[in-house]
Target: WD40 repeat protein
Amino acid sequence: MNDQRLRLDLTELAKEVTVVDLRDRTLRTSRRLGIQRAVATSAAALVLIAAAAGTAFAIRPNGSSPPLPADTPSVTASPTPSADPTPSTSTSDAPASPPSSGSSTNTSTVKIGKLFYGPAEITGAQNANLRSWRPGDNPVRLLALPELALKGNVSVSPDGRRVAWVDSDGTSNNLFVANADGSDKQKVRSDVDPYCVTAVWSPDGRQLLFRETKANDAGGPGRYGVLDVRSTAKTVRWWTTEPDACHALWSADGQTIAMNTNLGVTLYGKDGATRRVVPGFSRDGWRSNDIASLSPDGSRVALLREKPGGDDGDVARDLRVNGVWDTRTGTSMALPLGGRTLRQVYFQTDGSMVVRVQGGNGYAVLLVGEDGRKISETAEPAALKDMQILAVVS
Model:
């Protein structure tokens, strides 16, 4: 592969703006990520591409999400944030100053758990480290994983002890699990979808929901299964249905699995047999390629909601957020952003939310109660400025 051919391929991919079904979009994503993987494994090719196509490693082009129209059912009072995840320009390793937000209160009963981070964008490095941080402590460097897996499909167990990811050996996409420090690494399954239905942990940390599909055919025929990672035989309970959906999330009560579909967001029962479409998306032409977080009872969802645009053909995982929506009514929830840009939201098992905001060149995480009121705020260490939150655990 040479840099001229890659530029031509990427130019052709950028022209693909026709709205198609999720599987066709996944196939295009698979090709795009395949190009990135081939480039990342060749140091010579990396140098050429860094010079000729500096931003070609980003899985999704940066772009601003259009504002919600006046007739959209929403009760959000805060300004609609930009979807462009522009990182902080701070270079200090010391904690950044918290963006100005006014007063905050603290309680002893509700706290921010441990946050796990991975790279926000593909840089071309072969591997990168998962990191964790608990407010009040210093960031901790954890196991090293392929950068594409950290960006595209890694999943952290609800207790923060185990990590699951999918990586290719050239002939098969394999599902691995390991301890967060890298020990006890095991390959538990072959022929696993790495792009559309990324493996996701059950609330008890014993099972992984995944989709079986042949290598290089992530959008082709497949089947959904729930893998018992603690069983000796690694037994699988197969779903009797195959939803045309991507990016599953499991609610903390174990009763709901949310996925994005052509209808926007759909909630499934834990066996995939029942489903309910969340209102407020497809009706007005809005959609979401990803669901970042689901509340413990499945009543709220945090995601990036946008109208189809130039990057519609890319369904690679994107954990940016520009709102929180009620899954029963489709209305959005006001968040105490203090005029800052909303970047990410994660629900905790008690129903509270960890809200990541950016103001100027500083990032902060807010603890917000179920009622939408801010409980506390903590400045995020500047060392995490080029990373995104992958999970928040107790």
Q: What stands out?
A: The helical segments are 3-14, 22-40, 43-52, 147-152. Confidence is low (pLDDT under 50) at residues 13-106.
